[in-house]
Amino acid sequence: MSSKKEPQSQVPPQSKGSWSSFLKSIASFNGDLSSLTAPPFILSTTSLTEYSAYWAEHPSVFVAPAKEADPEKRALLVLKWFLTTLHQQYCSRSEKLGSEKKPLNPFLGELFIGKWLASPNSDVGETTLISEQVSHHPPVTAYAIQNEKHGVELQGYNAQKASFSSTIQVKQIGHAQYTITPPGSSEKEKYVITLPSLHIESLIYGTPFVELEKSTKIASSTGYVAKIDYSGKGWLSGKKNTFTASLYKASEGEKKPLYIVEGQWSDTFTIKNARTKEVVDRWVVKENPTTPLTLAPLEQQDLWESRRAWADVANNIVKGDMDAVSGYKSRIENAQRELRRVEKAEGREWERRFFNRIDEKDDDPLFQQLTNTLDLSGQLETDKTGGIWRFDPSRAAGAQPPYHKVGNEGLGLTQ
Ligand SMILES: CC(C)CCC[C@@H](C)[C@H]1CC[C@H]2[C@@H]3CC=C4C[C@@H](O)CC[C@]4(C)[C@H]3CC[C@]12C
To answer: Which residues form a coiled coil (predicted)?
Structure first.
């Protein structure tokens, strides 16, 4: 008899049937995850626009590169910051809710706006977040995170391309750009960041969780490249969320690493100087609590802001009243359909609030330079993201609700 304990199904008894039909439907789906009907126990009350906040939940780590005078160490601090975001990006739902969940599919124009407040016992200052759904077909979320005090800006956009091959496989399309003005310099320094592919584990037991795949890169305008290799359950260590990252000069190549970072991004990792073999830094997830994002109280939020717009849907998911959930979802969907119909009739397009669609040739020269270092062809498939999306800071300065010209009636609300 085997002593190995088999995982037990965590699917609630009343959901067994709907879970197995959900599993069957994903085996033959068309690539659009939002179109799948999943049983209530796997539905999240959080919209995907909220996921943009994962990029800066440790604000002091987010701004640290802007304070470092040495370009090599700056590039290392950017790599460190990126690695510290992975736990929140890819593990936080599983840890908090017991499994990965199916997020709410944002509607076009949906906004998620908040800030990480300045704290009297740190020099970080305030960090602000703007996240906007810039496309619905295909779903694309754009975001900008700014810390004015340290002159740090992160912006990006992403879409997901899903496929099925023994489980849900997700390729992320899009990229992020981290920009700072280094100490004593008047010129901007830019880092272009690619996003990992992932797949879902443990689907049949009803406890889905994310595992990252392959590799991602960060290329800097100062000539450094960081490459991160994800190995899931490390084939040597057997530990989950294992990775190896190296920082090197683009001109020298991967074979001459300056720093090596190793460990588990969901737990502990260490940073070593590859030349001296000395451990120079260490990150322990548990010892670094996140800073919560502060949102306006619900009644002061704009109707287009995620929490407010989805409140009725979310409350009924919690209650398990699926008829009410689909009723409130249809209200949003019908109102969106009506907006699209009118736009089409008037021969115009929905106006994005904080982001512009740009032409590749009009993009920032620094970005264009970096796309030559990285192979970004897979990230710039504009047909899968509805274009290239760039933040327009002039439209964010002092922005207050109402954010969109269309008010209650555009949201299908009568009052
Ligand atoms: C849980 C199962 C049953 C349903 C499938 C849910 C899918 C839609 C979920 C599961 C994990 C999710 C991903 C988890 C983390 C991120 C990183 C974030 O920066 C962008 C969104 C992205 C890339 C999510 C996209 C949606 C996602 C792929």
So the answer is: none
Q: Decide if 237 is inside a domain.
A: no
**Host domain of residue 190:** 13-231
**Ligand 1 — pocket residues by CB below 6 A?**
33, 38, 42, 48, 51, 54, 89-90, 100-103, 158, 160, 168, 170, 172, 200, 208, 210
Whether the pTM exceeds 0.90: the reply is: yes
Task: Give, for ligand 1, the residue of 93, 200, 379 to mutate: max count of ligand atoms closer than 8 Å to Cβ.
Answer: 200
Evaluate whether residue 161 is within a structural domain.
yes
- State the amino acid at position 50 in one-letter form: E
How many domains in the chain? 1
Beta-ladder partners of 191 = 178, 220
- What is the tens place of the pLDDT at every residue in 151-167? 999 999 999 999 998 89
- Are the C-beta atoms of residues 244 and 262 closer than 8 Å to each other? yes
User: ipTM value of the model?
Assistant: 0.99
In a domain, residue 162? The reply is yes
Domain contains 77: yes
CATH code (residue 62): 2.40.160.120
Ligand 1 center to residue 70 CA distance, Å? 36
Express the helix, strand and coil content of the chain in percent, nearest 5 each: 30, 30, 40
Tell me which of 198, 205, 209, 241 to substitute to probe ligand 1's pocket, judged by most ligand atoms within 8 Å of the beta carbon. 198
